[in-house]
Amino acid sequence: MEGRVLLVDGDLRRPQVHESLGLKPLEGFSDSLLHLDDDVDRYISKVGKLSVMCGGAHVTNPVGLLASRRTPEIFGRLREKIPADRG
Q: What is the pTM of this model?
């Protein structure tokens, strides 16, 4: 059974994963944290078999946003979308 991988750019000050993978700057992790009601699929791109969540929009307080209750909520929702390989 093939496992799934989701790369999340958690550097909300200077997100650069999109540049390394040749993606346009997209909505991403910061946007998902700011808009909890959105479907997280909206913020995930595919590069081959790799799922990628870019850093997203610039935020004024990235540390506060990452330390908020929203972060574990988003990671929980992502775990549901990208389940671990149980094989």
A: 0.85
